[in-house]
Specification:
- The structure is a single chain.
- The chain is of the alpha+beta class and 195 residues long.
- It has one domain (22-193).
- Helices cover 34% and strands 30% of the residues.
- The protein is built from 6 helices and 7 strands; from the N terminus they run H-H-H-H-H-H-E-E-E-E-E-E-E.
- The protein has helices spanning 2-17, 23-27, 30-34, 38-50, 58-76, 82-90, and strands at 96-98, 102-105, 115-120, 123-131, 138-146, 159-171, 179-193.
- Helix 4 runs antiparallel to helix 5 (58-76) and helix 5 (58-76) runs antiparallel to helix 6 (82-90).
């Protein structure tokens, strides 16, 4: 009987620690992002991550990115310093992030809130300049090095979402809010997103 109770306790403990972030958990953050309530989005996303440490799902990658993006929003609105942002973002180095979806843009037409993809001799790369709704502050220059060579034209006319492992973070050395950060992503991937 005692052994059964111990086994039951261990199973319950494993289930609690293995909890994953659900789509409904994630959906609760969306209104704060849409209204640009950066503090609320940051706090909700941070709390979700703290309570689901063993989750390795795509939704966790999205929520991890939201923490970084919302923290950059807090810098742009004077709620965080660049140094505080860097401390927060550096916690995610080595982790998988899944960024917001953006329209594909030809690499000759760099625009805000769109993703460009291109091939070089060294492999495939991509970049996004993710901003606030008005485009007055670039929260993250996202730089992607893809794990496999891609065909950029395969994504023409599509909304795409990139992700990968966060390798490093830089902040604006001038501490300006014109742009807040640069994120460097390796082992990247790109996916088409249904409209």
């Amino acid at each position: 009987m005692k052994a059964t109770l111990i086994l039951l306790f261990i199973i319950c403990s494993i289930r609690i620690n293995a909890q994953v972030i659900t789509y409904d958990n994630f959906r609760n953050i969306i209104p704060d992002l849409q209204s640009e309530n950066w503090k609320a989005a940051y706090e909700k996303a941070s709390n979700l991550l703290e309570n689901t440490t063993n989750d390795s799902s795509d939704i966790r990658g999205i929520v991890s990115y939201i923490v970084i993006y919302a923290a950059a929003g807090m810098v742009s609105s004077g709620q965080f310093t660049h140094d505080k942002f860097l401390k927060i973002a550096n916690k995610y180095i080595g982790q998988q992030l899944l960024m917001s979806a953006h329209p594909f843009a030809d690499s000759s037409k760099i625009a805000l809130n769109s993703t460009t993809l291109k091939n070089k001799e060294t492999g495939s790369e991509g970049s996004t300049a993710a901003t606030n709704a008005k485009g007055t502050s670039i929260f993250c220059f996202e730089n992607f090095k893809f794990a496999d060579r891609i065909n950029p034209q395969e994504f023409a006319g599509s909304n795409i979402r990139c992700g990968g492992r966060l390798d490093s973070v830089q902040v604006n050395p001038n501490k300006s809010t014109i742009w807040i950060s640069r994120l460097y992503i390796s082992n990247a991937f790109v996916r088409k997103v249904n409209p």
